[in-house]
Amino acid sequence: MRIAFAGNPNSGKTTMYNALTGRSEKVGNWGGVTVGSKEYQLKKEFAGNQEVIAVDLPGAYSMSPFTPEEGITSEYVRTANPDAIVNIVDATNLSRSLFFTTQLLELGIPVVVALNKSDINEKEGTEIDIEKLSAKLNCPVFKTISVNDKNNGLKEMISKAISLAGTIQKPPYLQADINLHDKDAVDAEDRKRYAFVNEIVKDVEKRKVLSAETNKQDKIDAVLLNPVAGILVFAVVMWFVFWVSQAWLGPLVADWLVGYIEAFQGWVAGQLESSPAILSALLADGIVGGVGAVVGFLPLVMVMYFLIALLEDCGYMARVSAVMDPIFKRVGLSGKSVIPVVIGTGCGIPAIMACRTIRDERERRTTSMLTTFIPCGAKIPVIALFAGAFFAGASWVSTLSYFFGLVLIFLGALLIKGITGYKYRKSFFIMELPKWKVPSLKFAFKSMMERARAYIIKAATIILVCNTLVQIMQTFDWHFNVVEEGAESTSILASIATPFAVLLIPLGFGVWQLAAAAITGFIAKENVVGTLAVVYGLTAFIDVDELEMVGGANTVAVTMGLTSVTALAYLFFNLYTPPCFAAIGAMNSEMKSKGWLWGAIGLQLGTGYTVAFLIYQIGTLVTEGHLGQGFLPGLIAEALMVLAVIMIGRKVRAHFDEQYELHKNIKGTEGAAA
Amino acid sequence: MEDKMTLLEAELGKTYTVKEIATDDEDMNAFLFRLGCYSGEPITLVSKKKKSCVAVIKDGRYNLDNLLSEAIVVE
Amino acid sequence: MNFATLIAVLALAVILFLAVRYIYREKKKGTTCIGCPYAGSCQKYKEGITCQTDISGSKAE
After folding, report:
1. Are A461 and C23 a contacting pair at CB < 8 A?
2. Who among A187, A218, A431 is closest to B47 (CB)?
3. Contact A266/C at CB under 8 A
4. Measured between alpha carbons, how far is C19 from A457 in angstroms, rounded to an integer?
5. Most buried pick, A471, A627, B22, C54, via CB within 10 A?
6. Within 10 A of A83 (CB to CB), how many other CB atoms are there?
7. Are B15 and B23 in contact (CB under 8 A)?
8. Which residues on chain B place their C-beta less than 8 Å from a C-beta of chain A?
9. What 8-state DSSP symbol labels residue A35?
10. How many CA atoms lie within 13 A of A648 on its CB side?
11. Tell me: domain A2-206, CATH 3.10.100.10, correct?
């Protein structure tokens, strides 16, 4: 048996779904968190002995979809024939929600209405007569509070839904038999439906506090939505998140964890003293060292996930989106693009998927193309490694990485606007401002643990296997002879990576070891750290205390042979080139256009290359008074990129003009016919 | 053309009635309709900024940009 | 070959076997990104591709 969960955005569908199934799908206090359907079995305590599958759907205001994610919902309830529908209604906004309810009731599928967020109504003194409402809608209505563990009304509600499966309810409102292609008729019909809903609400709802009255929350919003103060607050909040996770609490825990990892590695190496060197290299350096180097950064990532979860839960995201809207509009995006960017600090894949809530196709594709310029959780180890080894753990490195990512998003958006959008439609922006709520620590902790688990699984599988392969490729040459000390450049790894390294000479890091690390980074960005640990035989990456004792030129920096300038160039190259393959895959499925996908990959490669080139060449000029190596070839490469951009721009514009011409023709004939 | 008052010129805290959505953009009209913003419905301006405003439509608060508030004709 | 080496070889084999088996099974399930808690929904969207036509349809009007 299948029960679908449908309702308006931000009515709490996923929170209820999580409570009923025990899953921990992403939730947040803004409309449009869920962008795809999810299904899972109900917990035994709710379903009894039956097998009941709950299907969580993205929020929708009505059966006619506006954004791709709303399309999923109407498509599902129309065609997938669920056995029952639980319609989650935001009890604080009955007058809007019931519009969709009456549409659902017409589908011939039994519906149970869950008046969610009933606790907020109680606090505000709003009373809803559920018996009357149930009689008017001709379907069962239950008060629910999904965020509560007990007395939440979920059990009664869901068992009613299960028992109703297969029955037929008489819809309280039936759409008149009208021509659905006649816009005016549909309009009039929808108005009648709203009038019907208004009548019901008037009858069943008693409000102590009118929604239109200014309240305390409005005063907070007045500050947060102020163009100057609001953006300042946002900057401070994000800086605080990065500072706590990457400069204060995160490293504190990481130092302690790394101590154990190193001790363990030392112990393993000690046990294998009399064994063949290759075995020790594989086990102690490759697996324990390489994976350990990545896992050592886990505390930083966890603290950050925890703080981001708190932000997502309290209702701040909608405000950020609103306050950033005017700025993003200048570069051809809108406030809707802000949410993917903030989610992107955690992981690029959900960020790219969050772009689904953007209505305009050009805007949606542009955002999914650019959002990964914000360093994700997997890039934190890379940032922390370089900040620790080359900049004495300075926290400005990570702040700069994020800030610069944001700048690149703006520049990229401008570039794409220039290429594709010179006749783009001006899009309007509307964002519901949800009620503020105290973020749940329990939820944030759960979300953090879930993502930590994913991080560990990734480290123990993909990264472990990659490290082992890197270690093997580094140990042997093509004839499977062990590479001798001093002849490392004959190894398989070196011969594969060297051609790429040549391309990187104008960027200041044309050595095969660094090229190899950058390449493995495309599988997962943490691999950059893992591979560097393996190829340079280092592990004590994060042990900042120890590094500081050696001064600026610590062991890591000396072994890697990079100056501060080249280190920064290499770091930024890894941050702003295309993300991992998984994120590219997500981009592919959201863009639905090969042209845009290749454009995105090209843009990201070009950006990473250009940023590194500029940092290295200009940095070298400033610090050493001369240009870096390979300036001319690099300049030629840059010129070629600019040429490519111009060519693409021309092609797109020619195509645009063609379309526009066509449009004019159609309009012309229409005029003639009239 | 008669003088139309839009949400842009509305007073803070006062509840108006939507007269019409003056736009050529079908999508905008339909989108506002789904939120309950159509002729005959009440609307209240809560706060106003240079490029956007916050308004109460039905029982929800929304941040609208000027493109939208320009199109909402009230009385 | 001493005892430690034997244990090490065995441990290496078991660890690699488990890791590769996990990756293989996930790939077979259709997961594109190992360990990613969102992988499920990426997959779903590919199936739900039809919604896109709805959107472009409403725009074309």
Report:
1. yes
2. A218
3. no
4. 9
5. A471
6. 18
7. no
8. 13, 15, 25-28, 30-36, 38, 42, 44, 46-47, 49-52, 54, 56-65, 67-68
9. -
10. 20
11. no
Asked: is B7-74 a CATH 1.20.1630.10 domain? The reply is no
Tell me the three state secondary structure of residue A341.
Answer: helix
Model confidence over A293-346: pLDDT tens digits?
Answer: 889 889 999 999 999 999 999 999 999 999 999 999 999 899 999 999 998 998
Cross-strand bridge partners of residue B72: B21
Q: Hey, where are the domains in chain B?
A: 7-74
Partners of A190 on chain B (C-beta within 8 Å) are 33
Answer whether residue A292 shows pLDDT above 80. yes
Instruction: Using DSSP, state whether B45 is helix, strand or coil.
Output: strand
**Closest C-alpha to A610, from A600, A599, A602:** A602
Q: Which of A559, A594, A602 is nearest to A578 (CA)?
A: A602
Q: How many CB pairs below 8 A link A and B? A: 107
Angle CA(A66)–CA(A97)–CA(B40) in degrees, nearest 5? 85
Mean pLDDT, residues A439-449 taken together: 91
Residue of A35, A301, A347, A462 to mutate for C, most C C-beta atoms under 10 A? A462
pTM exceeding the 0.95 threshold for the entire prediction: no
Q: Where are the domains of chain A?
A: 2-206, 229-578
Note whether A554 and A548 are within 8 A (CB).
yes
A94–B59: do the CB atoms touch at under 8 Å?
A: yes
Q: What is the pLDDT of residues A51-82, one digit of tens each?
A: 999 999 999 999 988 888 888 999 999 899 89
Residue A241 near residue A311 (C-beta atoms within 8 A):
yes
- Rounded to two decimals, the ipTM of the complex is 0.94
pLDDT in tens, A103-123: 999 999 999 999 999 999 999
pLDDT, one tens digit per residue, over B1-58 is 456 899 999 999 999 999 999 988 888 888 899 899 999 999 999 999 999 999 999 9
Q: Quick check: A579 and A525 in contact, CB under 8 A?
A: yes
pLDDT digits (tens, 9 = 90+) for A267-290: 988 888 888 888 888 888 888 888
